[in-house]
Specification:
Layout (H helix, E strand, L loop, with lengths): L3 H12 L4 E5 L19 H11 L3 E5 L4 H7 L6 E4 L4 E2 L11 H18 L6 E4 L4 E4 L7 H7 L7 E6 L2 E6 L5 H12 L3 E6 L2 H13 L5 E7 L7 H6 L2 E3 L2 H15 L2
Parallel strand pairs: 1-2, 1-9, 2-3, 9-10, 10-11
Antiparallel strand pairs: 3-4, 5-6, 6-8, 7-8
Helix pairs in contact: 1-9, 2-9, 6-7
Length: 261
């Protein structure tokens, strides 16, 4: 349950000068973390409040999931979706990079084959996305050193991104959730924003939001705790630390009620 102090902060955001942007991560923030990434679901109550909020504010989901998967998980017509850590979006902006998908697909295939040959593939979940490949080791954390060793030397044009019990190979383009947030703020002339997240990539998004505060943007950062997996920087940067995806839902409900939707 939210504290009274947190409720007041969410209400103050709702009454701040607009346009209001609500930018949130997906897994671990809206959808509870599960053992197998394909089994993750956003609760119906969360989808419903996102729909309500989108009727009066800009609501965006910024995720490492590919765009198609994220859209299936968040099938809310009014919600903006930015996938693949800012490399896929439902709108165009000069801050967001382009990707050569043909060359990228061939390069990712070679990396996947190398990993499968070196690491016991039966115990490792490989998630092929539209423009990246994620190697999950949540079920078998003892495979992490082997996986890191194989991915230490990637072909030109690729880079490694770390997440919660996952290592992801993606294009070495200047993407990122930080750029995605800046693109959204620029696109929609944001004057107030809530940013929610739980992972290392979300810390970058938090820092980007803080850089907008001196420009007169009302910024509220809400971290979602996932226990020991949560990077310390999430708690350090957050104005409010939510204890679960349930509390994240409660936060969104509080803002929706304050906005009258």
């Amino acid at each position: 349950m939210l504290s009274l102090a947190a409720i007041e902060q969410f209400r103050a955001l709702a009454s701040a000068r607009g346009p209001l942007l609500i930018a949130t991560d997906l897994d671990g923030t809206l959808a509870p973390i599960v053992q197998h990434a394909a089994e993750a679901r956003v609760p119906a109550a969360t989808l419903a409040v996102l729909d309500r909020l989108a009727s009066t504010a800009r609501v965006a989901v910024i995720t490492g999931r590919d765009l198609n998967t994220a859209r299936r998980m968040v099938p809310c017509e009014g919600v903006i979706v930015i996938g693949s850590h800012g490399l896929e979006a439902t709108f165009e902006n000069d801050l967001l990079p382009g990707v050569d998908r043909i060359a990228l697909g061939a390069a990712l295939e070679r990396v996947e084959q190398r990993v499968v040959s070196a690491v016991p593939s039966a115990f490792l979940h490989v998630e092929r996305k539209a423009i990246s490949t994620a190697f999950h080791y949540r079920r078998t954390p003892e495979l992490e050193p082997q996986l890191r060793a194989v991915l230490a030397d990637l072909p030109a044009g690729l880079r490694l991104r770390e997440g919660r019990m996952v290592l992801e190979v993606l294009p070495d383009a200047r993407g990122g959730k930080d750029l995605a947030l800046r693109a959204l703020a620029k696109q929609y002339k944001t004057r107030s924003m809530l940013v929610m997240g739980d992972d290392e990539t979300d810390a970058g998004m938090f820092r980007a939001a803080l850089q907008l505060a001196p420009e007169g943007v009302h910024v509220l950062l809400a971290g979602v705790s996932g226990g020991p997996e949560t990077p310390p920087e999430i708690a350090e940067l957050s104005d409010i630390l939510l204890r679960s995806t349930d509390e994240a839902l409660e936060a969104l409900e509080t803002i929706a009620r304050a906005l009258g939707v």
